[in-house]
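Response to reviewer comment R2.3. The reviewers asked that we include at least one raw input/output pair. We reproduce the pair for RCC1-like domain-containing protein here without editing.
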Amino acid sequence: MPSKVTRHHATGNNATKSTRALPSRKRPIAANETYPTSRKRAKVSGQGVVPAIGLNNATLGNINAIPREVLTVYVFGTGESAGDLGLGPDKKEAERPTIITRLDGRQTTTDGYRVVQLDCGGMHTIALTEDGRIVTWGGNDNGALGRDTNWDGGLRDIDAEEEMDDGDLNPLESTPTCIPDTSFPPGTKFATVAAGDSCSFAVTTTGLVYGWGTFVVSRRVTSSFQLSSGHSANSRLWLQDAQGKKCFLCSNSQRIEKQDKPMLMPGLRNIKTVACGANHALALDSSGRVWSWGVNESAQVGRRARPQNQFMDSFYPGIIDLSRHGVRYIAAGELHSFAVDNEDRAFAWGANNFGQAGYVRNAGTGNAELPYPMQIRPLSKQGITVLSAASHHSTAVTAEGRFLVWGRLDGGHLGLKLAQEQLDDPKLVRWDEYGKPRILLQPLAVPGIGDAAHVACSTGHAVFVNREGRAFAAGYGFQYQLGNGTNEDSEIATEVKAKVLKDIKLTWCGAGGQFSMVAAPVAGGNISGSNGSAE
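Raw output as returned:
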């Protein structure tokens, strides 16, 4: 779930903004961090490699298929500091949907890519091509792109704000570019990809996982408020530490702070898919087991760590004690996680301070974390096909075609307006001490936008695509991430209209920190305009 962004954190009637520092090639490398590690453990940055004897494409058979449906991708929002939009170095805003030229599936240019799957991180995106290669773009401060983006034109003073605003973006970050084939063993093909805040992961057709980037260990600032139930709830703002504490992988033999290029993840075999939160990851294997690793500050990793090795245990892939029936679907929010098993039971763990995990009993309480997977009955037996989670709210698509939303109410990112009768129902809504409705306790269907096909959400907004192929968006719009041509917020899910979307049937959507994406199959209609946006 994307979160490393310029964003609002609303408390009561006020909203504060947390801003990511603009990237600069002059920025010094962060000082070495101190962790409770063994003296014998090597500390590595950039090129750490965990040996994987015998694990290669020559000895493993294919268990995953590459998706075949080629997409044309549209983007809207802001990428003023890192090229999040993928529109090249001179395009920092897109007020309405704009075709990413290199991802126009109908074009046959040599510098374009025919992509079949994408995932949006906080400030970067990863895409999979029809021939099983990896394309990335956006912010690469922490190695999230998995390739070299050093650029001579990037040597600018980070304090010279006007210079940064007026100058071009780094073309190696802002332009979708393939990770070199030489970064992987010969014959490696990928079948699915996932992006977090500063990390990326990709699963091969043979069930191995490669990863790069880092997880950022944050510090938590907590402000409390009273709910109508009498409980005290915490509104948490997670800030990157000034020194940027980072860890990508930790084992008995080594600790990797940042991995600039792809590496084979240890211990993961027969993996079917991966999902990323802001700073943690999940993997689902062919036996229906769920693996997790990363930052565990809100129990989002879902595993009990040994007291003497809490740090090492969470930053190394391990199996979550979950359903004996096997899991069929996984999803991750900023600080919480979901799984749906083969009996169609939904489980969640991690942060629940705004009911975002869907567990009603402790939603909004002072200790609102689920330390291990708990069954979420309102989401069970719903035939969940898509789950997308942000920091304080979550969304889902059901087999019957309903858009379900729950979690934090203020901000408008749920896309619905409750009737007074609903607001007055204590089983449905929890109010705060200021007399404001704060938490939607139960999943509700978003009305008036058609039958659900796909959904995606980020910290302050959500995007919905219905079965007719139309897109809707709700929440904060101050960086044009709603695609309506203005920077105004929208409490109600409102259709995203643009000339380039005329006669296009969308099937997918994604949400980054300050941008959104939608995509349509190449056969979904004639593309209006080769690379322009609509007014």
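The two ends are 30 Å apart (CA to CA). The mean pLDDT is 84. Further pairs are available on request from the corresponding author.
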